[in-house]
Amino acid sequence: MLDIKWIRDNAEALDAALAKRGAEPLAASLIALDEKRRSVVQSLQDMQARRNAASKEIGAAMGKKDMELAEKLKAEIAHFKDVMPGAEEEERQLTAELTDQLSRIPNIPLEDVPVGKDEHDNVVKRVIGQKPGWNHPAKEHYDLGEALGYMDFERAAKLSGARFTVLTGPLAKLERALGQFMLDLHTTEHGYTEVSSPLMVRDEAMYGTGQLPKFAEDLFRTTDGRWLIPTAEVTLTNLVSGEILEQEKLPLRFTALTPSFRSEAGSAGRDTRGMLRQHQFWKCELVSITDAESAIDEHERMTACAEEVLKRLGLHFRTMTLCTGDMGFGSRKTYDLEVWLPGQNTYREISSCSVCGDFQGRRMNARYRGKDGKGTTFVHTLNGSGTAVGRALIAVMENYQNEDGSITVPDALLPYMGGITKIEKAA
User: Fold this and answer.
1) 103: annotated binding-site residue?
2) 39 among the known binding-site residues?
3) Is 391 an annotated catalytic residue?
4) Does residue 253 contact residue 233 with C-beta atoms inside 8 Å?
5) Distances, alpha carbon 330 to alpha carbons 212, 327, 391, 405, in Å
6) What residues pair up with 252 in beta bridges, in sequence order?
7) Which residue, of 30, 313, 353, 398, has the greatest Cβ tally within 10 A?
8) Which one from 288, 331, 352, 354 is the annotated catalytic residue?
9) Catalytic site includes residue 277
10) Is residue 43 annotated as part of the catalytic site, yes or no?
11) Pick the catalytic residue: 163, 262, 332, 348?
């Protein structure tokens, strides 16, 4: 969420930033609403001050036996008693309206983010590794998985409907191995603290990281009003919600391996085959809570941690700087890692690493106290996939496929596979 004080002082900057994101200008309407709210607040304060003064004046008038003045003052107080509740309700409504409008405004892109409309305007930052050089044609993951006998979409549909997958045997083990490998790498080598957190959260948590109110249709909700997390970013970031941290203890770095749940409301008809776009999938999440000065460097560090996963797996990928029109709602700058899928003959996103500034910190009211002990500042937050396990499984299957349809297990995963070095067709 953006600060209305900043908007009042930087109206042109806000509208220019929104234009970069392809959004309409909002500064004038927001400032007008805020001025109306502030006018009501000032009126309430004036009435409160006058009511308090009149109460004291009544005593003085009674002491002087000026009953006419005392009655006049009592009538004045009675008038305030009648009109103030209405003004208080108006102030509550205006504050709620302003808060709602502010909560729907996307974050301000950093100056070095390329300006563009969509994914076609993203910029390649670096390319890592080589595409596999085979003589045999590449198959897609679902053809490989079904032929091996360990990937079943029909049974998944029987259980849950479309966009679900059942994995069995060595493919289920390979998926588990990928998640465990990522978690071990980030905790033992990259300095992240492993967290086991809830998969269902309250409204406040979704609001804190920016999923609510704007993206409710992308989420799943339980009958008792909780939300299934679309990513562990929600729980890991909200661990510090409402807290005041000490600057010298920052950054805090958290990681979690959890299922994620998404309705995919805006992706009807896209990637309907296979398990590329699912309602439920595993993801290893990375979250950093930092001070303002460290956030940009932490973004580069987090991206390198996610890249290391793909490097260890021997996968070819490229790191993209997203343009203003393709960035997420809460991001100030995002790097996407796009892994090469030979079966599709294209790159697909497998991780997004974003720096959010104090956008989420303000929504969560999460602050830190400076080293001088004077005052508090909203924390800066970052999040990234380290990486999406299901898409990593797809990438391993397609990049390590053999001509006979078997899949060689990458060296990095061998310690987790119980002696399985190659996944072959079920007997």
Assistant:
1) no
2) no
3) yes
4) no
5) 11, 8, 23, 42
6) 289
7) 353
8) 352
9) yes
10) no
11) 262
User: How much is the pLDDT for 59?
Assistant: 84
pLDDT of residue 55: 87
Q: Please give the model's pTM, rounded to 2 decimal places.
A: 0.92
Q: Report the greatest alpha carbon distance in the chain.
A: 108
Between CA 401 and CA 241 the distance in angstroms is 45
Residue 316's identity, in one-letter code, is H
Q: For residue 416, count CB atoms less than 10 angstroms from its CB and return exposed for 0-12, middle for 13-18, buried for 19 or more.
A: middle
Q: Which residue is catalytic, options 8, 277, 318, 362?
A: 277
Would residue 21 show up in a list of annotated catalytic residues for this protein? no
Question: Whole-angstrom Cα distance, residue 317 to residue 131?
Answer: 9
Give the per-residue pLDDT at 247. 97
pLDDT, position 266:
62
pLDDT at 267: 63
CATH of segment(s) 119-423: 3.30.930.10
| DSSP secondary structure letters along 334-382 | EEEEEEEETTTTEEEEEEEEEE-TTHHHHHHT-EEE-TT---EEEPEEE
User: Do residues 356 and 381 lie in contact, with contact meaning Cβ atoms separated by under 8 Å?
Assistant: yes
Low-confidence ranges of the chain (pLDDT < 70): 265-270
Architecture of domain 4-103: Orthogonal Bundle (1.10)
Would you mind telling me the total number of residues written for the chain in this entry? 427
In this prediction, residue 65 carries a pLDDT of 83
- The torsion angles phi and psi of 174, rounded to 5 degrees, stand at -65, -40
Q: Where are the domains of the chain?
A: 4-103, 119-423
The shares of helix, strand and coil residues in the chain, as percent rounded to the nearest 5, are 45, 20, 35
Angle of CA points 413, 419, 420, to nearest 5°: 70
